[in-house]
């Protein structure tokens, strides 16, 4: 199956993820969790590509579903860290996000 992105997919991607209210994350625990989830994402990609020396056992569609699930785990953990920064350290993430977008535009990465 060939993946051919449509032009409108490059505009923006909005992801809304919840605040996890049954946790008491710290900056450190959340950073470690991001690393753990990123490792699981890398492992899913590596297994599909045979980078661990194993034969590819999954069909592409199933492998990409696993990759997508791991990516969402990374995103959820990053959002959790955003809540930690806002709630525990008073960081204004709206300002940070706007500065980030301006930086990307200045570098020519987006319009």
From TrEMBL:
Coiled-coil segments: none
InterPro entries reported in the protein's UniProt record: AF0060_NTP-PPase_MazG-like (IPR044548), MazG-like_dom (IPR004518)
CDD domains from the UniProt entry: NTP-PPase_Af0060_like
Protein's recorded name: MazG nucleotide pyrophosphohydrolase family protein
GO molecular function, one term: hydrolase activity
NTP pyrophosphohydrolase MazG-like domain residues: 27-106
Database matches in Gene3D superfamilies: MazG-like
UniProtKB keywords: Hydrolase
Organism: Desulfosporosinus acidiphilus (strain DSM 22704 / JCM 16185 / SJ4)
Keyword Metal-binding carried by entry: no
């Amino acid at each position: 199956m060939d993946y051919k992105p449509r032009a409108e997919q490059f505009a923006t991607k909005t992801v809304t993820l919840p605040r996890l209210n049954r946790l008491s994350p710290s900056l450190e625990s959340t950073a470690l969790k991001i690393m753990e989830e990123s490792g699981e994402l890398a492992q899913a990609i590596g297994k599909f590509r045979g980078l661990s020396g194993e034969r590819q056992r999954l069909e592409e569609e199933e492998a990409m579903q696993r990759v997508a699930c791991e990516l969402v785990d990374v995103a959820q953990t990053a959002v959790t860290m955003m809540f930690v920064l806002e709630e525990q350290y008073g960081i204004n993430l709206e300002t940070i996000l706007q500065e980030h977008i301006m930086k990307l535009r200045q570098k020519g990465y987006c319009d």
